[in-house]
Specification:
single chain, 5 helices, 33% helix, globular
Amino acid sequence: MVIRIGTSGWSYDHWHPELYPPGLTTRDRLACYAAAFGTAELNSSFYRWPRPAAFGSWRDRLPEGFRLSVKAPRGLTHARKLYAPEAWLQRIAAGWHELSGKRAVLLVQLPPSLPRDDARLAYFLRLVPGWMRVAVEFRHRSWHC
């Protein structure tokens, strides 16, 4: 069994000097972070989905064995609430594909206001490409059964 420990994100100013040495550029934070941790969650993708080239750049800059999880965009999870996910899944797959062997899971964080809806979730999960691993975070109480 492989256990990886990481955080939600890697570019935090307050991590100086505990993790990042003085003078380290913002661009070099990922390499420094990856030397200390084996995984991270890309949280900024929730607010703005990156271009496929950004995923390719992360893939090329991350060391072997590192895995990056990516949070699904709020447009899919909070605005659309998983309805009509086809266009979103195409965008996600384009970027996700670029991560190649560095990808971990797509984190689908459902809004706290979304009650349990098995049919909606099943429809969404059927459309997710088989090569894409997904973790779903249920936040409404009705899912806790």
